[in-house]
Amino acid sequence: MKGLRKAFGEQTVLNGIDLSIAEGETVAVLGRSGSGKSVLLKLLVGLQRADAGSIEIRGQQIQDLKPRELSEVRKKIGFLFQQAALYDSLTVGENVSFPLMRHTRLSESERRDKVRELLSDVGLQSDLDKMPSQISGGMQKRVGLARALALGPELLLLDEPTAGLDPITAAGIGKLILDLKTRRKITSVVVTHDVHGTKGFADRLILLHEGNILIEGEFADLQKSEDQFVSQFISAA
After folding, report:
1. In what order do the strands lie in the sheet with 212-217?
2. Hey, which of 40, 54, 65, 232 would disulfide with 70, CB 3.0 to 4.6 Å?
């Protein structure tokens, strides 16, 4: 990302963001509510358009792509929405199978095997035939994660994956993110308010404040910062 800017009316959310993320790296994006964390993810996946600046994914500029070209890029990006965004009328298995049906030529039996494998990866292989309303919020997040992984993405974008979850369930989601990094070597950008939870899975933390990256580094770097806002943010978390 270079010089990335985004405003809504007179409110500037991102004010010239410069950020590079290495292949296989997991970056956690922190900040107060309204600081532009989720907007950053939506710009990366092309759900919103930047007012200025550029976004390059694997050498490809995405902001000027035609819809069909952007669709091809999106197939390489897994996106977990904050509320999991499962289809209420589809079973857990059908939710995970949905991108496979739309974007692959797998047979029904191949899709079924792939879905079982994906749900096994997130510990939900026995919940294949349940409806979203029959499982907990934490389980819904894991189903959403399995669906995000269905097409074998190179980049994984997670929007508040632990929001609204109890500490034990949140820690389980954090462990899943770490496992994915270890086993699949996926590059991940994780938007979160769970500052202390990032210690378990993030290589680098980015703190957004007033439209800019105020500080970036490991958790220890933020702890040692003498900046008043950084200290307040860490101690209040």
Report:
1. 77-80, 155-159, 187-191, 26-31, 204-209, 212-217
2. 65
